[in-house]
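Running low. Invent one:
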Amino acid sequence: MSTKAKMMHYTMKYRHLFKGQLRPEVIDKNTSIEKIRRDCDETAARFFKPIPGISFKPSDYPTFYAEWVESEDAPEEKAVLYFHGGGFVMGNARSHRNIVGNFVKHLGIKALVFDYRLAPEHPAPAAVNDSAAVYCWLLEQGYQPENIAFAGDSAGGGIALATLLKCKDNGIPLPGACAVFSPCTDMTISGESHKTRAKADPCTPKGANETYLGYYVGGGDRKHPYASPLFGDLSGLPPTIIQVGENETLRDDSTRFSEKAKNAGVDVQLKVWKGMFHCFPLLAPMFPEATVALEEVCQFIRKNLKD
């Protein structure tokens, strides 16, 4: 099978996490969130296979469930705080186990994954408040901020960036690095790619962004930085890497955030991958582009965490 054919094969398989056989082709307010959550968990468990050499251990965090994802011989003093994706309405530490396990295997640093509160029951900024709390707990456990990296995919990437802003506002020391895959940064859905990439995007059902982001904002301000980090003061954020596919509706959430961050003096590295789809690096090593993209992220994190 050629590289292009292999990539398309996995594109079509991966899209089942977002739509297809187990998910509606159209998402609106009549769509059952409970069913979507069940389907997401079941599909993730079936598609993403267990990773040899990776263990999962419940943490001692007292407020909500969080677990350590660890590789063999990972350094004790370093950690990734991983923000799972799921459109702000689905996903959890367990559903993301093997996604994060694959990331940890490549990175060689353990990760803490946690169950932040989900919309629509808990709109913004609940997820950001939860994230800031578990990060503070990590600091209380003795981890130094320069030895911690934030990482997240999709909605989780947006929450990670918003959590940086909350921590900065609260005077909490920021982590040494941040890495996000296809982050959702703009609840106003104002990026041109929502229109120009709608037909090219293989992973986003019609109406999904409008519905999920509407649930996440609830009755709040769509431009509040803890909901839409794109509209925050980005100065002072840690070195950040963003990986995004050209063929996704959320592309401009990444490109606009990167441009604004650079203008604010942030060390930000953006890569827009031609022909790629939502969060594709998480499929490494299924095809070369995913492998290269994930390795770029791993190298960035290793470089920016304290030796």
Observations:
- The chain has one domain: 3-302.
- Residues 288-304 form the longest helix (17 residues).
